[in-house]
Design brief:
428 residues, eleven-stranded mixed sheet, five-stranded parallel sheet, globular
Length: 428
């Protein structure tokens, strides 16, 4: 975002931004209640609104008939509010007129417009397909990711999913499974970080009875559970070095053998999808990850964008999160200025952080009321910590796995006292 635009959500200002020289036309990524689409902006003026007579018609009852105008020139794109009821926001500032550049997010009611510089045909003009079922976000970035997922889903080769924490890497892994020929077979997720170091091989490959202290019965292991389907290894970068050769052998099509088993094992018909938030090449250089395993995994890489790189998806994500939270905090709507404030935030915690902010804002708002911009601002600053209602027993167990079983660390991540968090783990 543009730092000069970080003004009060309630201000009504005229802002000047020094744009970079234009290098061709702009692309405008549009998301409203009718879905997502792109249009090419060339020199001239277009009017945006809900009237059938404007140049860009939005489907959004919170947008005025003639809401704003965009004018493309050699210096950038001039954005002018046309006296709209709910305002035109760039960043978190309500504007009258501003000159913007590529990367600017314009918030109109519950809709967003994102300016992008037109690049090469392969980068900007290539059509993108539909978004993935069950994954919120119709931005061009997410639809191109969906195209990659559908293309790679046809194969059985390993896939590495990279992305920051909280971006939804497991959702993408499930989509790879659901879009491919293995969709009717098991999807087995394993968080490598949550596995006790001494039990990693047993959890992945199984063990024979008596193979080690506590092995009272034979265990098949995750590879056997995922036979014919997909094994998802989350945070693969934390896999202990001693277990990596055995995983490499399985990926190379050789036999998988249970711990303590005599003789050979069996070939695994399993597709492995791995995910990491870490840069594996750096771990390779430090000797923490085998180079041959890294190269076996990184043949196909799906990069999941951070939330700040797809800000146009934030209104749709916010509505979906509030729908999910309604059972705990009650039904809530959200004001256009509040959505603009959400779109202006950098979201280091990505979608997981967005959920927590909306939970705090909803809890601080009137029952069945509307979340305003000041409630979002307080929630981002954590002035109203009310995470307890947002954390379910299921999400508490997930936080505990992410904290490698450390109860205190998981409780801190949940924003709850340790005793309350422990009780929640035993909830329904």
């Amino acid at each position: 975002m543009l730092p000069a635009l970080e003004e009060s959500c309630h201000s009504d200002v005229t802002i000047e931004i020094a744009p970079t020289p234009a290098e061709g036309a702009f692309l405008l990524e549009v998301q409203d209640e009718a879905g997502a689409r792109c249009m090419l902006l060339t020199a001239g003026r277009i009017v945006v609104g809900t009237s059938a007579s404007v140049d860009l018609v939005l489907t959004d009852p919170t947008v005025s008939a003639r809401h704003c105008a965009l004018t493309v020139s050699d210096g950038g794109v001039a954005i002018e509010d046309l006296g709209s009821t709910n305002g035109t926001y760039v960043g978190s500032a309500r504007i009258r007129e501003v000159c913007a550049e590529a990367g600017t997010v314009i918030s109109l009611g519950r809709s967003t417009l994102v300016l992008a510089r037109r690049g090469t045909p392969s980068e900007s003009d290539e059509p993108a397909g539909e978004a993935l079922p069950g994954i919120v976000g119709g931005s061009l970035t997410m639809r191109r990711l969906a195209d990659q997922v559908r293309r790679l889903a046809r194969h059985s080769l390993p896939v590495l999913i990279s992305g920051e924490s909280g971006t939804g890497k497991e959702l993408i892994a499930r989509a790879v499974h659901a879009e491919g020929p293995r969709q009717g077979r098991p999807f087995v997720p394993i968080n490598v970080t949550a596995l006790p170091r001494e039990l990693v091989e047993s959890e992945l490959f199984g063990h024979e009875r008596g193979a080690f202290t506590g092995a009272h019965a034979r265990r098949e292991g995750a590879f056997a559970e995922a036979q014919g389907g997909t094994l998802f290894l989350d945070e693969i970068g934390d896999l202990p070095l001693e277990a990596q050769p055995k995983l490499l052998r399985a990926l190379d099509g050789y036999e998988v053998r249970r711990v303590g088993a005599a003789g050979g094992g069996q070939r695994a018909d399993v597709r492995v999808v791995a995910a990491t938030h870490a840069r594996l090449e750096q771990r390779v250089e430090r000797g923490e990850f085998r180079r041959d395993l890294y190269h076996r995994l990184e043949c196909f890489v799906l990069a999941v964008p951070s939330l700040r790189d797809r800000r146009g998806d934030i209104p749709a994500l916010a509505r979906e999160v509030l729908r999910q939270l309604a059972r705990d905090v009650g039904p809530r709507s959200i004001a256009p200025a509040a959505l603009a404030r959400l779109a202006a935030h950098d979201w280091p915690g990505n979608v997981r952080e967005l959920r927590n902010v909306l939970c705090r804002a909803a809890d601080a708002s009137a029952p069945a009321g509307r979340i305003e911009a000041d409630a979002v601002e307080r929630a981002i600053r954590r002035d109203a910590p009310a995470l307890t209602k947002c954390i379910t027993s299921k999400s508490a167990h997930q936080l505990l796995r992410e904290a490698a079983g450390n109860l205190s660390a998981a409780a801190r991540a949940a924003g709850m006292p340790r005793t309350s968090f422990r009780k929640l783990l035993h909830g329904p």
